Amino acid sequence: MTAEQISLETMEARHLDGAVLLSREVGWPHRREDWELVLSISEGIVALQNGRVVATTMMTPFGSDAAAINMVIVEKTMQGRGLGRRLMNAALEKAGSRHSRLVATKEGLPLYEKLGFVAIGEIAQHQGKARKIEAPANVFWARDDEHERISALDRVACGLDRSELMSALRRTAQFAVIRERGEVSAFAGLRPFGRGLVIGPIGAASDQQAKDLIEFMLSHHEGAFVRLDTEQSNGLGPWLTERGLAHVGGGVPMLRGPRVEQAATPYRSFALVNQALG
Q1: Where are the alpha helices (DSSP H) in 200-236?
Q2: Average pLDDT of the segment spanning 78-85
């Protein structure tokens, strides 16, 4: 059966069990709950063969300017038939005039380059068991009334309107904050993901703030399996390795379309939500 005989349909909750099986096949750690989070804020597409999910992708809008293309998986037996390109074209059509971004695997890189995506850096994936660490005295768990401020700082740090994503994370994640003069000046999130926990996003104005937030999270989850994805350019790699989070791979962040100019600010993103959502 050719790719042209496979139907593309809107992803719904009934497709998620098949999607989880696909992600397991390619070695991704995503649980059904992880797929549910992405689908809750995205427009998903599935490729079906006789009702069976054989490929997926999602388009996650960040306001009217940007979108993340993610969860691009094609079953091994279906690869090499143009199905990945069909899914990507469908996702880009949903993105419309937004500039699109993704984090590419080595296998997907050639296709994305043909579709006009350009590499803009490198993502390092760090993971391991959290070691015994003393909690920094300047970091606290966020209060409920601080989430609006956290969402606003996330927008400054990454230059994207991720308010819908941040609202979804509020339901599943714990947030820690640093306060200056009574107002949140830096934040980090932590939630169940894959094999254990993931730290991210992190928005901060300095390396030290980011490190304090990470140490706070680690101090409260000694012995737990923890993952953190960060831009190589942040320079946290050696420090994370010293704290038991080894560098185990990563991906290539790519952009298609004009980059949205960020206002001058000391704030930046020190950790991704995950590689799918940036």
Answers
A1: 207-219
A2: 91
**What whole-number distance in Å separates Cα of residue 270 and Cα of residue 210?**
7
Q: How many CB atoms lie within 10 A of CB 92?
A: 20
Instruction: With CA atoms as reference, report the closest residue to 65 among 100, 39, 115.
Output: 100
26-72 per-position pLDDT tens digit: 999 999 999 999 999 999 999 999 999 999 999 999 999 999 999 99
Q: What is the mean pLDDT of residues 191-197?
A: 96
Dist CA 190 CA 214 (whole Å): 10
Q: Given pLDDT bands bounded at 50, 70 and 90, which one contains residue 258?
A: confident
| Prior bond of 201 cis (ω within 30°) | yes
What single-letter DSSP state applies at residue 14?
G
Calculate ∠ Cα 210-216-34, nearest 5°.
80
Is residue 2 within 8 A of residue 79, CB to CB? The reply is no
3-state secondary structure at position 204:
strand
Chain-centroid distance of CA 45 in Å reads: 18
Q: Return the pLDDT at 260.
A: 64
Q: Which pLDDT belongs to residue 264?
A: 73
Instruction: Compute the distance between CA of residue 152 and CA of residue 139 in angstroms, rounded to an integer.
Output: 19
Give the residue from 244, 268, 181, 177 showing the smallest Cα distance to 216: 177
The pLDDT confidence band at residue 266, using thresholds 50, 70 and 90, is confident
CA dihedral 48, 50, 54, 58 (to 10 degrees): 20
Site of tokens 């926990």: 197
What is the average pLDDT across 82-88? Answer: 94
Q: Which residues neighbour 162 within 8 Å (Cβ) at sequence distance 6 or greater?
A: 62, 151, 154, 155
